[in-house]
Design goal:
about 160 residues; 5-stranded antiparallel sheet; 4-stranded mixed sheet; about 35% helix
């Protein structure tokens, strides 16, 4: 009987998740962030991460991700998720684009807004570095907020 490749891949992914979880859980963090992390990692088995631009204009950017629909409105200077205001542009301290996971199979990029050094809004994740870079550039343009720790390849030098 030949081994099932899907079961082997799922088993390997799960063991990698366990090791990653244990290393992540060993660092000091808030309980809510830990729960969010676990749910996010488990959701990846069900539905892959995605981040896409729904609508873009000179004063507005609308994004859809696993985390909801985000609207950045330059006129009202507010970011909202699923119609609920989350933060004013003035409250956003940094925009962060980081490589969350890099494996032989793929690299996953995440987009975060930091309201303080410990409070963040996760916008979403995707595997397309060019898309994340374009979204980051548009967010910098709309909000006037500086980026944090971006790679030089993003071309943002603010």
């Amino acid at each position: 009987m030949t081994p099932n490749p899907v079961l082997q891949q799922t088993s390997a992914s799960f063991s990698g998740l366990t090791a990653e979880f244990l290393s992540y859980a060993a660092t000091p963090m808030h309980l809510i962030e830990l729960i969010e992390y676990v749910l996010h990692r488990l959701a990846g088995f069900v539905r892959p991460s995605y981040l896409e631009v729904v609508d873009e204009g000179p004063n507005r950017l609308e994004l859809e991700s696993n985390r909801g629909r985000f609207v950045f409105d330059a006129r009202s200077r507010v970011v909202s998720r699923n119609g609920r205001p989350l933060a004013k542009f003035e409250q956003i301290k940094f925009i962060d684009l980081t490589c969350e996971k890099e494996t032989m199979e793929h690299t996953e990029w995440r987009v975060d807004l930091y309201l303080s050094m410990i409070r963040r809004i996760r916008i979403g994740e995707c595997r397309d570095e060019a898309l994340v870079s374009a979204i980051g550039a548009k967010l910098v343009e709309l909000t006037g907020v500086k980026p944090l720790a971006w790679k030089k390849s993003h071309g943002i030098t603010r």
